[in-house]
Amino acid sequence: MKAWKYIFCGGVMIFLTTIVQAQNYTLQRLNATISSDQYHEIAPCISKDGKTLYFTRLAYPKFERTLIESDVNLNETLGPEAYFSRLASIYTVLGGKYVFDPINSEFNQDIWIAHTINNEFDLLEHPTYPLNNALPNSVCALTPDDEPIVLNQFAPGGGMQKGFSKVSKSDEGEWQFPSPVGVDRYHNSGSDVNLTISSDGKVMIMSMEREDTYGKADLYISFQRSDETWTHPENLGRGVNSPFRESAPHLSEDMKTLYFSSDRSYPGRGCDIFMQEKTGDSWKGWTSPRKFRSPINSEGDDSHPFFNEATGFLYFTSDRQGTFDIFRIQIKEPVRLTEPEKEQQLLASNENIIPLTIGSKIEFSKIFFTQSKAEILQKSFPELHKLSLILKNNPRLMIRVEGHTDNTGDKDLLMQLSKERAEAIKNYLVHKKNIDPTRIETKGYGGSKPLNNNSSEKLRKQNRRVEIEVLSSKFVATDLGTK
């Protein structure tokens, strides 16, 4: 029996298309830190490089409890009983029926982020306010710059209305307050909504219910104007839509394939995943919708498709194993192969432990500085953010930040520069990420520990690096709810 969960607003062979190369299609349920047995996880959105996953977790008891009304955070001013009573009344208004238990309500939705460390989504992040709050939160899509488009619009002083917002990060890597996405004459009379944005950022396809909807929800198209607002949504027509519910659209990176969910196979009982291809330059010309075979579709409720071209994986949501979980299956060869990462187990995702020994190194991408200075460049902040998550999720872990340079220049100045760069990273983790300074040592080696002979600029560049060495060696349990 199929069931359905909404995003609320205010090793088997399959057949896909003739162009897919024959290969072994193995269905994977994402690891247990993401696809839990206790909660519902839905709506996967993947960064272009395939290394960051946004998803929505429902009814998690340690949700972000910030609730702003009239510039006041009720979570800080009300007692627990009054706070949850107020939250229950808000959820009651949203759903049109009385909510007894707001914690277990389907309106309790938070955004979670999983980062890839060892070729898996093995570092979990539960963002705080303002990316999350006590109202429904979900990432609908990612912009061409991998910035999240989130459900609903919020005001800094409190309140929520239907629509969409864009979220970006500051230069220090902190989430900014969501800014509204302007859609001409936007309205949605249904209970759920979602969208996808084209890879060039100029086309938006939304699922929603309006006066010209053929069924309970249809897919609509809108185009970006020069002022970055969007045109009045236009129904994609009967070539795409049916008398049933069409939802959760996703447009491929080449803008030629549309993936979406529909309950046309089992009306009222849940969804299956479909695809169709654009037949020309017009956004009104599409091939007939084709339904995926097993193991993508099942007897359960299958929805929220998201195809990542870099890896060839199709991600989707399904309740085939009881709760809603996130699955993936490789349906095409990867288009952009990323460099293989050095295999070093930082997190054992199924067991939530870090079995690192003293002297081992935490691998992460290169940290960049202003030339000949100890000023960290903005493009380094995402990697430092990941390092801060490892430290926060493992409070007994201690590290040493080691700075290295090449051999070009005065040895004493190079030694001083390496020390200052290591200290700059510590200061960032302490002052920007609230890491206890006693957990971080620093040391500068200058050019005394090269990886190679410095005989070319390419080799010297490799020697200009920062390394993170583990000083504690205990097995440290991580907390799924750590923020």
Largest sheet: 4 strands, antiparallel
Percentage of residues in strands? 25-35%
Structural domain count = 2
Structural class: alpha+beta
Distance between the termini: 36 Å
Helical fraction: 10-25%
- CATH C-level of the largest domain: Mainly Beta
Shape: globular
SS elements, strand count: 28
Count the DSSP helices.
5
- CATH A-level architecture of the largest domain: 5 Propeller
- Strand arrangement across the biggest beta sheet: 1-22-21-20
CATH topology heading of the largest domain: Tachylectin-2, Chain A
Molecular structure report:
By secondary structure, the chain is an alpha+beta fold. It has two domains: 28-330, Tachylectin-2, Chain A; 353-477, OmpA-like domain (60s Ribosomal Protein L30, Chain: A, 2-Layer Sandwich), CATH 3.30.1330.60. The protein has helices at residues 74-77, 80-95, 381-393, 411-431, 457-463, and strands at residues 28-29, 40-46, 52-58, 68-69, 72-73, 109-116, 121-125, 139-142, 148-154, 160-166, 179-181, 194-197, 203-208, 218-223, 234-235, 246-251, 257-262, 272-277, 290-291, 302-308, 313-321, 323-330, 353-354, 361-362, 399-404, 440-444, 465-470, 476-477. Strands 1-22-21-20 form a four-stranded antiparallel β-sheet, with no helix packed on it. Strands 2-3-6-7 form a four-stranded antiparallel β-sheet. The longest helix has 21 residues, at 411-431. It is globular.
